[in-house]
Amino acid sequence: MSAVTSTSTRSTTSTISRLDPVLLARAFRTVAIAEACSWTGLLIGMVFKYLVGFDDVGVKVFGPIHGVLFIAYVVITLVTARTFRWRVGTTVLGLLASIPPLTTLWFEHSARRRGLIDSERARQG
Description:
Layout: H1 2-17, H2 21-52, H3 57-83, H4 88-96, H5 103-113, H6 119-123
Helix pairs in contact: 2-3, 2-5, 3-4
């Protein structure tokens, strides 16, 4: 069983290390923006459902979309953190950014500005 696990781990690690850093950074940015937009849609839907008392169609539409994008953001954050060799604290902050509304935008901008998703950083090591 351990041979299977170690082979599987090595396979996953080599697959992650072969990802194009430029495309990964672009995907990270895209998912961060999409996750924030879905949060906005869900919040607007909740305003109409709970405050205006109009309809819950916004929650029914944006709820599942946001759920999928939330999971996608968590996964791509973990892959990006591994590829670009983020510190544990940076990775945790990136993951926590998925919880408050629109914080993924701030984190992505901050990561880009600080060079955390620079392709040269991924090649180092």
